TrEMBL record:
It comes from Gordonia alkanivorans CGMCC 6845. GO terms for cellular component: plasma membrane. Its main location: membrane. Residues 23-302 form the ABC transmembrane type-1 domain. This is ABC transporter permease.
Length: 576
């Protein structure tokens, strides 16, 4: 509840003028609505019953004018409420999104990727919807309830018992319905989460599903989730549709009671016909206000759930900006891992287990290890994509957790395992590394990455289009473009996570030699599964199950490390 109040408060504070305008419109709307039944009573009692055409005309015109004003201010209020809720949803999405962007890998793993996706879209949508309902109901309903009660009693106090009983009955009935709706609404949200996850997995895994002939199984899995979702939605819908008829039936029955009771009073000469009409009108408004208030009580739980889920993202502590530059001077840093361990939530063993390794300034350090041995996790530390659970990573002797992530990253070029490319042109992709680079610099970087040939082969050259995720390039071409982007940056530190896995050994050798020649002063960390990628490194660390099992050069490891020999032998590069 605190989270929801906080989000609503932030939304209201963000645009005080819109809120003020909204309140003015909303007040005008309530007052004009309240005026109608009184005018109606006047036109009947003073005009129609007395046959006074003049009064009928005047009051009638007044009623038309009030109705027109009511329409205009109601439209204005709805417009401002939509505007306010949509723009605060935009701000909230922005906040959630930028916060997620600062998460470490462990934080993403803890909250779950799919869930983060739903939180920044679906849950924000819930808050947007709630804000709109809250705005339109919370000002209007209590005012209308109070005003209509006062006016109906002043017009026809004899009707008080009917109003009271009808109000109680309505609260009871709508309350029962809302109580049934709330748990199903929460269940619906969870079902949406699940079906999103299944759908995501299936869309991402289409090739795998097809090669392993899992279509039928996946179809069945989706059908189950789909049926469950439908079932929950139907149950929810069946209860929800009862709300409006309940309000209508109670209002109409109460209207009948007022008319019947009124007839008796009119017969006795204690009331006028117009007063009955006014009482019926106010009764409708009272019951409408009551049911709106009950309904908002029903949407609160769902909004609270969403607000809590959003707040969980917003309060997650992200890397503080640290003490930029403190103590760091040299251009190419020495990177030291000092007994670092990293675990992921839900895993039994740490992904990186007490690793100590020194990567001297201006040297190439290779990390060799099979899949899952912890290479990527270790490489995520100097860039602060993750912080170690224990141990320290030093950048030229300074603990990186004391350095601003932005400062560290600005001096580093990272090439990830996925060789991420974005939609746009080749030049767009390369200039991510250095926005002001000239075409000549781009070509040079491509040359270092042995990518010049295939870019030249495209008629548009640097302006060749890159499709989503770079799918119109081969895996090896993507890797070379990603490397060229890194080269363009002229970083002090290269962090290369298996960057050559899709290259043949000859191209790989060429690229490594080019890179060294182009930036002899840079410090390079390179992880790989293949011996050929690291054998020319100044130092090689061999990883197994998150532990560092051997350190040396290609030469020393071949004599000292059985594991290294085994890997090298298996990859048949012993005499290459
Ligand atoms: N985001 C994550 N959430 C949960 N566990 C993770 C995550 N990232 C890595 N791990 C776990 O950490 C261990 C080491 O993974 P890591 O990606 O560092 O291995 P790797 O050596 O890079 O493997 P590969 O050569 O396949 O890329 C694995 O057991 C993996 O399951
Ligand atoms: Mg990896």
């Amino acid at each position: 509840m605190r989270a929801l109040v906080g989000l609503v408060g932030t939304a209201l504070r963000a645009s005080p003028w819109v809120v003020a305008g909204f309140v003015v419109f909303q007040l005008a709307s309530v007052f004009t609505s309240l005026a109608q039944p009184a005018l109606n009573a006047a036109i009947i009692d003073d005009g129609i019953l007395r046959g006074d055409v003049g009064t009928i005309k005047v009051v009638g015109l007044l009623m038309v004018a009030v109705a027109v004003v009511n329409l205009a201010v109601s439209l204005g209020a709805t417009y401002l409420a939509s505007h306010l809720s949509a723009s605060s949803a935009r701000d909230l999405r922005g906040r959630v999104n930028s916060r997620i962007g600062m998460f470490t890998d462990q934080q993403v793993a803890r909250l779950g990727l799919s869930s983060l996706l739903t939180r920044s879209t679906g849950d924000v949508g819930q808050i947007q919807g709630f804000l709109f309902i809250f705005l339109t109901v919370v000002v209007t309903a209590p005012l209308m309830l109070f005003g209509a009660l006062v006016l109906s009693l002043s017009q026809a106090w004899q009707m008080a018992p009917v109003i009271f009983v009808a109000g109680l009955v309505l609260v009871a009935l709508v309350g029962v319905l809302v109580r049934r709706i709330v748990p199903w609404a929460a269940r619906l949200q969870r079902r949406l989460d699940t079906i999103n996850r299944v759908l995501r997995e299936q869309l991402r895994g289409i090739p795998v599903i097809r090669t392993f002939r899992q279509e039928a199984r996946e179809r069945a899995r989706f059908a189950v989730e789909n049926d469950e979702l439908t079932d929950v939605a139907l149950r929810l819908g069946r209860t929800q549709v009862l709300l409006l008829p309940t309000v209508t039936v109670v209002s109409n029955l109460a209207g009948v009671a007022v008319a019947a009771l009124g007839a008796i009073f009119v017969d006795r000469g204690q009331m006028q016909i117009g007063q009955i009409a006014a009482a019926v009108g106010y009764l409708g408004q009272i019951l409408l206000a009551v049911s709106l208030l009950t309904v908002i009580a029903g949407v609160i739980p769902r909004a609270v759930t969403s607000a809590d889920r959003i707040a969980e993202v917003l309060v997650t502590e992200v890397l503080d900006s640290g003490d930029a530059e403190a103590g760091v001077t040299s251009s190419a840093p020495a990177v030291v891992f000092d007994a670092v361990s990293v675990g992921f939530p839900g895993a039994d063993a740490p992904a990186v287990d007490a690793i100590s390794l020194t990567c001297a300034a201006g040297t190439v350090t290779g990390l060799l290890g099979g899949t899952g041995s912890g290479k990527s996790t270790l490489l995520s530390l100097p860039l602060r994509f993750a912080d170690p659970d224990s141990g320290v990573v030093r950048w030229d002797g300074t603990d990186v957790t004391g350095l601003a992530p932005a400062w560290v990253r600005a001096r580093t070029a990272f090439v990830g395992q996925g060789a991420t490319l974005v939609t746009g042109t080749i030049a767009d992709n390369l200039r991510i590394g250095r926005p002001d680079a000239t075409d000549e610099q781009l070509w040079k970087a491509l040359e270092v990455a042995a990518a010049r040939d295939f870019v030249e082969a495209r008629p548009e050259g640097l302006d060749a289009r890159v499709a989503q995720e770079g799918r119109n390039f081969s895996g090896g071409q993507r890797q070379r473009l990603a490397l060229a982007r890194a080269v363009l940056r002229r970083p002090a530190l290269y962090v290369l996570d298996d960057p050559f896995s899709a290259l043949d050994v000859d191209t790989e050798r060429e690229v490594i030699a080019n890179l060294r020649r182009a930036h002899p002063e840079a410090t390079v960390l390179i992880a790989a599964q293949r011996v050929s990628s690291v054998r020319h490194a100044d130092a090689i660390g061999v990883l197994e199950d998150g532990r560092l099992v051997a350190v040396g050069t290609d030469e020393t490891l071949r004599t000292d490390s059985e594991i290294y020999r085994e890997i090298a032998y298996a990859q048949a590069v012993t005499d290459a």
